[in-house]
Specification:
Elements: H1 5-19, H2 38-66, H3 71-96, E1 99-105, E2 116-121, E3 125-130, E4 133-138, E5 144-149, E6 155-159, E7 167-173, E8 179-186, E9 191-197, E10 212-215, E11 218-222, E12 226-231, E13 237-242, E14 247-255, E15 258-265, E16 273-280, E17 286-291, E18 298-305, E19 310-315, E20 322-327, E21 333-338, E22 345-346, E23 364-367, E24 370-376, E25 385-390, E26 396-401, E27 406-412, E28 416-421, E29 424-428, E30 435-436, E31 440-443, E32 453-456, E33 462-465, E34 476-480
Parallel strand pairs: 1-31
Antiparallel strand pairs: 1-34, 2-3, 3-4, 4-5, 6-7, 7-8, 8-9, 10-11, 11-12, 12-13, 14-15, 15-16, 16-17, 18-19, 19-20, 20-21, 22-24, 23-24, 24-25, 25-26, 27-28, 28-29, 29-30, 32-33, 33-34
């Protein structure tokens, strides 16, 4: 019976090793790397195969000298093989590490002209905005909970970065026209609570995120030359702040009773200033104005964190500012983290045509006083590492390899982050950069887009939300162990 253990291990290792290869192909320059544990498992399979043949042959010959006949040796060998299957599986599980497989997915988007615009993550649901409306999905099974169509010929062009008291704010606009229709949406039922018309930005020149925000009981919306506040649940006008002549708001963020708006002034069409204007969210009263360190027009302005307020700002002058700027509660500049340095380039966002436009899924997050972001070596485009920068002085605290391309990054409870890189989800300590081992997506990773949003599901499950859900990648995929 003992002789059957070795071939039993060979059978187990062959089965688990070969079936672990996604799509029956991996490795080399043309395919994804083989899952962790696959190569040693297959090597052990062949080792046990040759060793098992030798051991079984030797034991059968020895046994038949004592007790003639082949029935008993065969029974003993088969029994040994069966008993070896369980320890073989346990050895494979140890070599492989934890895994998750696709548990469910949602039907592809129709019509094929729509794209994902952004997401709100709730306790038990994900609200996914498409260019033609909003859909609520259950986190546990991906079941469609509700659907809310966009205005006639309108497309979603901006979303609030948070849902407050069950209300999200979204703005729509027509093609080649301003984003001028603001909605307050009950995210539990999918009901439109209110609608207001505003004087939107000037179409394609406006940023596609940060045009609306929600804080306390106020919804904040950016107009062409003003900032307006509405009652979050009823939509009644609360206040309006008119900007100086030649000035327009660029991007806004609201948290803890304070709304911060980046305002650019172009008197007579020439660059004048770029300022951070802080407002009392409840009243709209301007509290302070802070000059931003630029001398030309903005090119990119993305809020990385509402509190502490952290802004990625890039100006038109190639020799000018292109950095993450961190501010304290009184809007004093605490730290400047350059996007491109001697050792690495920061990749806080994906390419615009491959990500969510209205609310991008960033590859960067602020946890405490640390900015964590995906990073590349100079000259490389695909981030395969992570770096942490202190927001007290802007210095790099740590740098760690991610094991492959960084696809997504999201916050976890307990001041930790989850990182999806090379098909494995790991937990990251933002203070030290230590990446703890996590589950490998064994089946379904080929249906994940380049820049999805990673969402923590129920009971250790995970959900990935794809920007494009019309083709090979479904809108949502659920993964379970």
């Amino acid at each position: 019976m003992v002789a059957g253990l070795v071939p039993g291990l060979a059978v187990a290792f062959h089965w688990f090793g070969w079936t672990s290869i996604p799509g029956n192909r991996c490795g080399g320059s043309s395919f994804r790397p083989c899952p962790e544990g696959t190569t040693p498992t297959i090597l052990l399979a062949f080792l046990c195969t040759f060793a098992g043949i030798a051991v079984v042959t030797w034991r059968i010959e020895k046994l038949t000298r004592v007790r003639p006949g082949r029935a008993l040796p065969a029974v003993l060998v088969v029994t040994g093989m069966i008993l070896a299957l369980w320890p073989g599986r346990q050895a494979y599980v140890w070599l492989r590490g934890p895994v998750v497989d696709r548990a469910w997915d949602t039907p592809i988007d129709r019509p094929d002209s729509v794209t994902g615009a952004g997401n709100w993550v709730l306790d038990d649901a994900v609200v996914r905005a498409r260019t033609d409306g909003l859909t609520g999905y259950g986190l546990g099974d991906g079941r469609e909970l509700w659907n809310l169509a966009a205005p006639e010929r309108g497309s979603a062009c901006a979303m609030s970065d948070s849902v407050v008291d069950g209300v999200g704010v979204i703005v729509f606009g027509r093609v080649d026209a301003p984003c001028d229709t603001v909605w307050g949406v009950d995210t539990a039922s999918g009901r439109k609570l209110w609608e207001r018309k505003i004087t939107g930005g000037t179409g394609s020149e406006s940023p596609t995120d940060g045009r609306v925000a929600a804080d306390g009981d106020v919804a904040v919306a950016l107009e062409d030359t003003a900032v307006r506040g509405f009652a979050l649940r009823a939509g009644d006008p609360r206040w309006e702040l008119d900007l100086d002549a030649g000035c327009s708001p660029v991007v806004a963020s609201a948290a803890a009773g304070r709304t911060r708006v980046v305002v650019q002034c172009l008197p007579d069409g020439e660059f004048g200033s770029l300022e951070l204007v802080s407002l009392d969210t409840a009243t709209g009263k301007a509290v302070r104005r802070t000059a931003l360190p630029v001398e030309s027009e903005w090119v990119a302005a993305v809020v990385v964190s509402a509190r502490p307020f952290t802004l990625w700002l890039k100006e038109k002058d190639a020799r000018g500012t292109d950095a993450a700027l961190a501010f304290d509660d009184r809007d004093r500049l605490r730290a400047t983290v350059k996007v491109s340095g001697r050792e690495e380039d920061l990749r806080m966002t994906a390419y615009p045509d491959r990500s969510f436009d209205a609310r991008p899924a960033l590859r960067a997050a602020v946890v405490g006083d640390v900015l964590v972001t995906a990073a590349t070596k100079p000259g490389k485009m695909i981030p395969e590492a992570l770096s942490g920068y202190g927001l007290d002085d802007g210095q790099r605290l740590w740098h760690t390899g991610a094991g492959g391309p960084v696809t997504a990054l999201t916050r976890l409870p307990g001041n930790r982050l989850a990182v999806l890189a090379d098909g494995r989800i790991r937990s990251l300590d933002p203070r030290t950069g230590h990446l703890a081992e996590g589950p490998l997506i064994r089946e379904g990773i080929d249906d994940v887009a380049e820049a999805p949003q990673l969402v923590r599901g129920r009971d250790g499950d995970w959900v990935l939300v794809n920007p494009d859900g019309t083709g090979a990648t479904p809108p949502l995929l659920g993964f379970s162990s």
